[in-house]
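Dissemination and training. As part of the outreach component of the grant, students in the summer workshop were shown how a complex can be specified as a set of sequence lines and then modelled as a single object. The example used during the hands-on session is reproduced here so that future cohorts can follow it. Participants entered these lines:
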Amino acid sequence: MYQYDHYDQTLVNQRAQQFRDQTRRFLEGELTEDQYRPLRLMNGLYIQRHAPMLRVAIPYGLLSSIQMRTLAHIARTYDQGYGHFTTRQNIQYNWPKLEEVPDILDDLAKVQMHAIQTSGNCIRNTTSDHLAGVAADELEDPRPYCEIIRQWSTLHPEFAFLPRKFKIAVSGAQRDRAATQVHDIGLQLIKNARGEVGFEVLVGGGLGRTPIIGVVIRDFLPKEDLLSYLEAILRVYNQWGRRDNKYKARIKILVKETGIASFAQWVEKEWATIRDGMRLDQAEIDRVSAFFKTRQYLSLPEVDPALEEQIARNQAFAAWVRRNTVTHKMKGYRAVFLSLKPHGQPPGDMTDTQMNAVADLMDRFSFGEIRVTHTQNLVMADVEQQHLLDLWQALDHLGLATPNVGTATDMITCPGLDFCSLANAASISIATGIQSLFDDLDYLYDLGDIRINISGCMNGCGHHTVGHIGILGVDKKGEEWYQITLGGSSSNDASLGERLGPSVAKIEVTQTIEHILLTYRDLREGEETFLDTVRRIGMEPFQERVYGHH
Amino acid sequence: MDIIKDGRIQADTLTHLDQDAALPKGAFSVSLTRWQSEKSALLATGQPLAVRLLPAEIVDDLGEDLPLLSMVVLEMNPFTDGRSFTQIRSLRERLGFRGEIRVLGDFIRDQMFFLHRLGANAFEFAPGTDLKDRLKAFEEFTVTYQAASDQPQPLFRRRAHP
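and obtained this result:
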C-alpha cells in the first residue's frame, strides 16, 4: 500500500497541529461556534446526540495491521471500546471528548492516518472497489488513481468551501463494486479503441434527498488529464452550484438544472485553459502504482485437495467458504470477507479486541492488509486456500465469521436515531428485527443475494434508495414510520428503488419484509435473483401481499 | 488602519466608497456596479483604482478593464461562500491580473493560507483584530500538494526533482 514520505507525513502532522490550535481557540472563545463548525467538520468532527462523533479517513478503504491496531487503541482509550465502519469505507467513533480529539489526531498521524476532509463542504475520501488489485475482472488497479486524487484534493486551496460535500469513486473492474454511478464524480477505468487505458467520467450522481444516477460527461479521459479535468468540474461547480438552499446545493442539482450538454461545455471551456499546465506525469503514476504491486504471490495449484476434504467434512466451514470468500486473480488464493453483521449487533461495529485480533490475522494470512467495503464489512484480500480453515476458526472465535455476506442479513444501516442528531427514526433496531427472521440459515441462503439498506432519515446515509429493498425512517407526528422501496441497485445496472406504498409502522417493518421475501420465494423462476424478480413482475404482487393483510 | 500585505503588517489608507459617496482625495475602492456606470469619471481622478467584487459577481465582467485597475477587492461574506476562492484563482491564472488582490469581510484566519496560495496578497480586517496573530496563518503548512500562485509546480514534480 502507499507509504508516506516526509512530505506526506509533514503535512498530516501540521494538519493535526493546526486542528489542536483551532480547538484551543474555540474552547477559549476566540472562534465562534459558527466559525469553528466548518473547521471541525473538515476534520471529521460532528456534534451529535450524545457526544461528538469523529470520522477517521481510510483512503479507498485500505488499512495496514499497524493502522488497525491504532484504531483499536483509539477505541479503547478515547471511546467506549468500539468503532463503526461506514459506507464510505471510513470509521467513526461515537464517544470521543472534544478536548481529546487533537490527541487522537496525533495518534493517527503516527501511523499515516488522519481525519482530513471526512466531513464538511469539501472533497471527501475517494472510495474504490474493495477487491481492487485482486479481482479477476479488473482492467487496472484503481487505487493508484485514488491516491493521486487524495493528494490533489487534500487541503486543495480552492475547494475547501464548496456549495456542498463532494464525493469521488473510482472503479477499475467490469463489475462496479464502488457504486460509481451514485457519486458526484464516478471514474471508470476503460480501454479505448486504440488500446489506451483512461477513464469514463460520470458526473452528478448521488443519494440523499434527491437520488440521481450519474450521467457520462466524457467517454474517454486520458490518464494524464485526470487532475485537470477533475479541477475543471470542481471549478464550474464551485462557481455555479447553488448556495441558496443546502438541499439543492449538490452538483447533481446543478447538472440537472443546467442540462448535461451545457454543463459539459462549461467544463470543457475551463478545462482548455488549464489542461496543459496540469498534466499528470507518467513518472508519478508509476511511482504511486509501484506501492500497490509489492505482493510476493506464491505459485499455487488451483485446487487444494485438503481444502476440498475440509469443506466436505464441515458444513459450517463450507457455508462460510461459499458465502464469505470469493475468487482471486491468482490461483490458490481467495479474498475473505469478515462479516460485521452478526445477528443482534449494530451493522459495521467492531470492538477494540476484535480489531487487535484481526490485525494479527492480517499479518499471518494476508500480507498485513485489509480493506473496508462500502457495505460495511472487511476483506482480507490475499489469503492462501490452505489457510482458510485456520482463518475461519480464528474469525469464528471472534464472531466475525457469520456466513451471511451478500445475503438479506448483510444490511447497510446508518447509525439512526440511536446516535445521529439528524435521524427521524431508528435503523439499528430495524436491522436486528429483520435478522431475527433468519434463525434458519437455509432459508437465508435459499433467498440468495439480496441487498437490504436502511436509512434513519431522507439524507440516506444507509443508501436505502439503491437497496434491492430500501427502508427509510420517517417521522409521523412524533412516531417512527418506514417507507419501503423495491428494485434499487448501485451496481452496473444502477437504479433507484420504487415506493411499495404507504409507509408502515415500526412494529410492522419486520413482518412487511417477511411478506416481501415470501412473495419473491413464491414467484421467482428458477435461479432468478430477488432484483431480477422485482424487475420482471413489478410492484403489484408485493403490494398485494403486504397491504392485502391490513 | 493597518492591514496585512505581502506577508507584513502595513499602514493603509484605502477608503471603500458606497454607491453615492463623494470621491475622496486619496485611494479608494468602488463596487463593480459603480465602476461600470462611472468608469470615465473614476479614471479622471488619476488615483490608482480598486474595484470590489461580491462572491456572486463574475470576474470576467472586469476582464478588459483589469489593466486599468491597480487592485481588486474580494468581499467575503459569509466566510463560507467559497466562490471568492475561484474568483482569486481566475484573476491570477486565467486573466493574468498582476495588481493587488485584497480580501475584505468576515473571512477567518484559517482561510488565509488558502487565499494566499491562490493569489490574494492583502488582507483587511475588522477594527481591533490582532494582526500579529493573523500572520501565523501563513506558517501553519510547509507542504502543499497542488500548484498555485505561490508554487508553480505540484508536489509530484518537486518530488521527482528534489
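Chain B has one domain: 2-160. Students were then asked to discuss how this feature might be tested experimentally.
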